[in-house]
Specification:
Strands 1-2 form a two-stranded antiparallel sheet. The chain starts with 17 loop residues before the first helix and ends with a helix. It has four helices and two strands, in the order αβααβα. With 166 residues, it is mainly α.
């Protein structure tokens, strides 16, 4: 590599060598694959938690069915979000109080998760669900609890950061 670049230099894409471009492309590809893998692992853990909690309601042909559920959950979630989007847009255009808008936004998020789990249960091959609304409700509850935990951790870290700067 050329050591003539200074840290303050603004390097453009055109000024990079082929090796540096290939290395940058490889790094970005690895980052994208890492994020996709982390998202799939989180969905798989959530799916396993829902399947374990509703043991007698969900029947799967094998472990491959659960992986199909993970793969199909993201497109089903996108489809559910597409169905809920007009309601979100209508909410943003209203002149409701900010607290009411936040509560409605949370309810729409829960509805999106509920609908996504229903769609995933319907489209996953080899998966049979006796009462599909029960696992969907459980998954929505898990998402609400995860969001509450994340918000609590964010508040805790922001309070710690404010305490250091004072």
């Amino acid at each position: 590599m050329d050591d003539s670049h200074q840290p303050d230099d603004e390097s453009t894409w055109a000024s990079l060598s082929r090796w540096e471009k290939a290395l940058a492309a490889f790094g970005v590809t690895g980052l994208i694959l890492g994020v996709v893998t982390a998202a799939h692992v989180a969905v798989l853990l959530g799916l396993l938690a829902v399947a374990a909690a509703s043991l007698h309601l969900v029947e799967a042909d094998g472990i491959g069915t659960l992986f199909w559920g993970v793969v199909l959950f993201l497109p089903c979630n996108a489809l559910a979000a597409l169905f809920i989007y007009p309601l979100r847009l209508g909410l943003r255009l209203t002149s409701l109080a900010s607290r009411t808008k936040k509560a409605t936004e949370v309810a729409l998020s829960v509805a999106t998760t509920f609908l996504a789990v229903l769609l995933t249960g319907y489209f996953t091959p080899g998966l049979r669900v006796q009462h599909p609304w029960l696992p969907a409700s459980l998954a929505a509850l898990l998402v609400v609890l995860a969001n509450l935990a994340v918000r609590k951790m964010e508040r805790h870290t922001s309070n710690r950061a404010r305490g250091r700067t004072l």
